[in-house]
Amino acid sequence: MSLARERLKERIRKDWNAPVLADAYRKWDKEETSWGREATEVIVRRANLEPGMTVLDLASGHGEPSLALAQAVGPEGHVTATDTASGLLTIAKAKANRMRLRNMTFRRVDGHDLPFPDSTFDRVTCKWGIMYFADYAQALRESLRVLKPGGRATFLAWGRTQKQAQPKPSEPEITSPFAFADAGSLTAALEEAGYTRVEEEQVAVSLVFPGTPERCWEWFADMSAPFEPDESVNKGTVHIKDAAQEQRKQASGQVRAGFKKGYDGKQVTLPGVIVVASGRR
């Protein structure tokens, strides 16, 4: 890995392990889960799970989709939930205990260098995580290595709505939630890593925040707080921290207006697009 990518990896690790981020996930766990529920349903469905399967979930965060995956494979199956953020994994483990899910293991690992033998898992999943690896090509090769022959991996990334025309940033200086928004780009990455029979689809989803626009803005600000403006690692949001005063005012106004437009008196609902791609070993 190049020096620039090593620096990027360290910066990402530091941001995702910030105590303030773990505090935000604890505070907003219900709302964050609701926001990504349809995306979780998509990746669980596309993973084509069966009872008894072993699953490796990368970038598991606070437990989505790993908790849903564990329910899908049943008590005879097993899910290994992994992330670089130990604080988020602690939240996920506590939720699994409350749900009495005994078929899960939680491990802090580096997705670029997985500590598992070759051909360990029936399935690999990664929801909103592949875009944030400092070297996604290496991470994909590692995911393929630990997959059993004939096994299936499913990756989910952010697509773009018509209003989201941000250019994809050059690598390796920063990561972007839209790194695989262009049709076929995630397929190309999977095929380059060695995956076969790759299938890609763009899916429209509803992103639902159960509360008022004011609460939605508070959630947005809390979840964005740990990140620097050029790192864009906040799972689909646009960073405004430390921007120039006028830019910050304009950006916050646009976001707030969007929240208000999507409010129906009970919840804020915004349209979203996700890219989901699956491949086999």
Q: Tell me the structural class.
A: alpha/beta
Sheet bearing the most strands, described?
7 strands, mixed
CATH topology of the largest domain: Rossmann fold
Calculate the mean pLDDT score and round it. Answer: 90
Order of helices and strands: HHHHEHEHEEHEHEHHE
Give the total of beta strands.
7
Beta-strand residue fraction: 15-25%
Outline: globular
First-last Cα distance: 24 Å
Structurally, the number of domains stands at 2
CATH architecture of the largest domain: 3-Layer(aba) Sandwich
CATH top level of the largest domain is: Alpha Beta
The largest sheet has its strands arranged as: 3-2-1-4-5-7-6
Word description of this protein:
- It is a single chain.
- The protein has 281 residues and is α/β, with parallel strands linked by helices.
- The chain folds into 2 domains: 3-204 and 271-280, Vaccinia Virus protein VP39 (Rossmann fold); 209-261, no CATH class.
- It has helices at 3-16, 19-27, 29-35, 37-46, 66-73, 86-98, 136-145, 185-193, 213-224, 245-261, and strands spanning 54-58, 78-83, 104-108, 121-127, 147-158, 196-209, 268-280.
- The chain has a 7-stranded mixed β-sheet with strand order 3-2-1-4-5-7-6, with helices on both faces.
- The chain is globular.
